[in-house]
Write a structure and sequence with these properties.
Radius of gyration: 24 Å
Number of helices: 9
Distance between the termini: 22 Å
Mean pLDDT: 91
Order of helices and strands: HEEHEEHEEHEEEEEHHHHH
Structural class: alpha+beta
Amino acid sequence: MVNLISFAVVLSLLVFVHELGHFLAAKLSGVRVDEFGFGLPPRMIKLGQWRETEITLNWLPVGGFVSMGEEDPTREGSLASKPRRMRALVLSAGALMNLLLAAVLFSLMYRVGTAMPVEGPGAGVYYVVPDSPAYAAGLRPGDTIVALGDETIASVEQAIDYTQAHLGEPISIVLRRNDQLLNPVTATPRANPPANEGALGVSLGYPFITQRYPWGESLWLGIRTTGTVVTSIPRVIAGMIRRELPAEVSGVVGIYTMTAEAVKSGLAQLLEFAGMLSVNFFLFNLLPLPALDGGRLVFVLLEWLRGGRKVPPEKEGLVHAIGMVLLLGLMAVVTYFDVLRLLQ
């Protein structure tokens, strides 16, 4: 239940902030907003109304929308009737709000406390191989191994030596997570592990402590981390295209699984994951694909290149409608493979 609530809160926050960006920019630009919707139509219920704007909950839980008359330049106060710069601002505002949200979430992560490696007793867990003994026992990146069996661990070398001496035997592991000792867990080191995985399936290094920063420094670190993540994602995508990195795309089910993993590791990790997801929302919505904000910005650019001549509204609407159908189809395919991975 905690995982489901956390997933709902994270996804709802990202969608709400995105649509709030469009809504606020539209109001500041004098654009009439007919509907502020959670999810995609058909409509489930009307939640309320603020001035002329209906607030609704819809059946398809894959995002949200703000209805502003994007393709009807004849309607008074519609987005389509406004100048190009104003339309570009309103269309970009949702993604920019996701970027701002990411900076806030990362800042909160640094304020709450994030795991930092330091010299000292213990062995820090830097990576856990999926489906390994360590993964099954519940070890997470950022943990510190404090004891193995009846031995208090003073170094990485001692942890490795103890593990190698007890291959094929269940061993008790005491962990420190977020400066708190956890109840012992049990894992059995493998005598013949897959290549480059190790007996337990972990990568070890210096132990971790939880480092908390004052508000001013947290804000600066949050902004800097947001910039780092934004610039790193295109490099990751390029690596996937060149097959240097595994190509993994996740849908709603995959996001739920990753949220559940973050919840297990603590509040700081959940804030970090939500911040990463918000940056991905920012970049995804600006892709030049029909039905996305980036696709609508393409039509604004085309109007400028055509010397102010707009693409006929009915043609633009058809392009976005087809794009939405294809996007929903892609989401269904991605969700199918998410479920397969989860079952495996």
